[in-house]
Amino acid sequence: MSLKKIPGPTALPVVGNLYQYMFNKSKILKYHEVLQQLYEKYGPIVRETFGNKTIIHLFDPVDAKTVLDNEDKRPFVVPLQETTLLYRKKSDMSLGLGNTNGEEWYRLRSAIKGFMFDFYGLRNLSVKKDGVFDDIIKKLGDEIDENGQVKDLRMLFGKWALESSGITCFDRRLGYLDNGEMEKLAEKIIEANKEVFYLSGLLKFSFPFYKYFPTPKWIKLEKAEDVITNGTKYQMEKAYDEMYEVMSENRGDIPNDRFEFLTDLRKKLNKKEITTIMLSVHTDGLSTIVPSLLYNLYCLAINPEIQEKAYQEVRKFMSEGAPATKELISQSMWVSGTVKETFRFFPIGTEIARILKKDLPLSGHNIPQGSNIHINMNVHFFNEQYFKNPRIFNPIRWSDGLTDLSEDAKRVRKYVLMPFGANIRSCAGRLLADQDLILMISRILYHYQLVYPENEKPLQQVFNTLLVPDRNPPIRFIKRS
């Protein structure tokens, strides 16, 4: 079975298709648009070669269904960031969920499953975070200027994401919203995270010289990884110290409502493995939840009629000075629908990656076991075949069912929009992320009306390993009376 029969752009000897990216940074930053162009030019299946690595792009939801329906309980993936994999190997760290396959991955996944997929436990966790939501709303108010705008929303909400995940990981407030030294540490971690994802995106489309000797980009990336890792390890050690203190006060026992995540992990994993898990849970939101929040606020700002309906819904579940009710998470239609619809307008990832564990027929080609597959469904997010009136921002489409679609479209639409990945290798923190997004959006809507200035150009996305806003969204926050 030859992959060379699959259509795709001309590849050169040795470099393959890398030459199209290596000397054109703008093409890397608009990689999501390149994928759209590949689909339009070559069709539902496309081959690209990067050095000695061949990627098979799948653009047909039927093929996505074929791949995902044929998975076993231990699907193989390629790491999102091979740079992070290399850094952790060099640093003698546990590699973590996203960088392992087979039994090792399954063991790590099983260790966090009990906590991360405990729907009611996560609801109770949201109550612990109530003070964090109060503080970020206050800090938002402090940073709004005379025009109603915030200078750096990504930085502001990055601090919220870290402080919020501090409750999840370390069962305590970290001080990242307190205007002191700890807030400065948060700023360093946020900037380092931004640098890592930017440099990883560039290195993805370059010759991997950095794997053999320290190139300038690798040196910068390694320093940024150090900031993130050391910052998390610092918080980990403080959490352990506090936990041991609590144990000494309780004859070796830990109260059921303290250190739930850490206690659960200690039963199944060693400290090195726990540190990497905590590193991911603590900082992954900077590159996922934070840009998603910015996209949601932007979509609400440019759709004022949707914003008003979401606001009226929030008022049913919230009152001044009182925490958000659990019903807001489970019963909201407009806010939760906005989150889903925003993922369609502004996806975070560009692909779901898999390594085939058996031969599969895809778009008329027999693709062999071991092939590197990228499921690229973003090209269909505005396709009338799967979404009625696709250019209209309509949160209610997610609660109306699929009555407007053909039977064939109904069968595959769930394979079109998969913001958290698919099957057992979907994002382990998806329930937590969804909950935090709904609560944060609701808090902001309760206190502020969102307005997007008419003279500002629309928000765009750039590829930095994941898709992030091309600039600080110039949203105006108007205090509600």
What does this structure look like?
There is one protein chain. The chain is an alpha+beta fold and about 475 residues long. The protein has one domain (about 5-480): Cytochrome P450 (Cytochrome p450). Helix content is about 50%, strand content about 10%. The protein contains 19 helices and 10 strands. It has helices spanning about 20, 25-30, 30-40, 60-70, 80-90, 100-115, 120-130, 130-145, 155-170, 180-205, 215-250, 260-265, 270-285, 290-300, 305-315, 325-330, 335-345, 405-410, 430-445, and strands spanning about 45-50, 55-60, 350-355, 360, 365, 370-375, 450, 460-465, 465-470, 475-480. A 4-stranded mixed β-sheet has the order 1-2-6-3. Strands 4-5 form a two-stranded antiparallel sheet. The protein has a two-stranded antiparallel sheet with strand order 7-10. A hairpin with a 2-residue loop joins strand 4 and strand 5 (about 365). The radius of gyration is 23 Å and the shape is globular.
